Cytochrome P450 (Seohaeicola zhoushanensis), 399 residues
Amino acid sequence: MPLKIRDIPQFPEYIQGQTDHQFMANARAQGPFARDRFGIVSAFSMAHLNLIMDDRWTRQVELETMRAAGVASGPMFDFVRGVMLFANDETHRHRRGPLVRSFAHKLIAELRPEVARRTEALVPPLAGAGSVDFLTALAGPLPAQMIAAIVGAPDKDIPFFADHVYSAIRGLSLCSDEVRIASDHDMGWLQDYVDRLIARRRDHPEEDLLTGFLDRVRGGPLDENEVRAQILGLIVAGSDTTRGALTATVSQLLQHPEQWAMVVEDPETWAAPAVAEGLRFDPVIGALVRFTTEPREIEGVLFPPQSLIAVSMLTALRDPAVYADPDRFDITRTDHPRLHPVFGGGPHRCLGEALARIELEEALKSLARHLPHMALDGPPPVLRGYGAVRAVSQMHIRC
């Protein structure tokens, strides 16, 4: 007889001072699954990650997180209700379809010179500047600038735009009442801002992504909240994740100076492998979460419909069945899967993957050219969190 969810062992006690990776590794050592005090099950292997991303028996989380937090209205609720990330089936196709052509790899690849131009404006002034806050100087501004350019926001608005994004995104997870209020305030500001962008483009079309998107949704099935939410989704998803990934990747390179030296010596060869390894070693996404839609027995446990399963990226991306010596940061490794798992899979795979890779690669190239002797100034940053977008602490570099 198969086991039930209540038979799955609970997560071990957190030991003060543990890293997220150590905590999740200890949970994985207990068996293929662990459950938290709310009954949410976590899985740990790459095989289970591939299994639960199958739309034939699981679905994307929709408004359940909002409801669990007691949120039934407000700017963040409206965003989650309308965005493609938290939709399934035909609704998801209607929301994603108009953006797919705009984010085709060929079109995004043509943005590489613009990304390079912006990194070349941001990085050289840091040389000789002493101790620099990396998130403020480069990791935050670069993705914010690119997303702003894509949606037609003027450069002068970028500092305000970025601050509101980094605050609003906190409301996507369970959070304190104080954070919820601040997140709703900032999401409300972003909604008003995007409404103004949309109105301006409808009145004055241009040859850009926003005009093309608005043309494709004209007369279609999306309501105004959904139209706005897709643009907001690009802004939110395209800013904070790249900010954290760039910080984590540069941190690991500086903690492995022999590998940073390889990037410095030949950035055209080693920037892309360094990005792939940085995304694997300390991922900015903590877990991918899905609901089951039919009963399924896995590893001797019967999961009924509507079971919530979260697969840990921290353990799946260090799965010894996939990666040799998985706890070692190694930009020379050749065992990455063809499609990097951190970007998800199936119809929900991250639409901005190509842009994120370009931003990360061009940033590393520029840093290698202009700041070859940079070093950490103080402790390395810490990514914290087990689900959704992980928070990154400050990082200072000496240039």
Q: What stands out?
A: The mean pLDDT is 93.
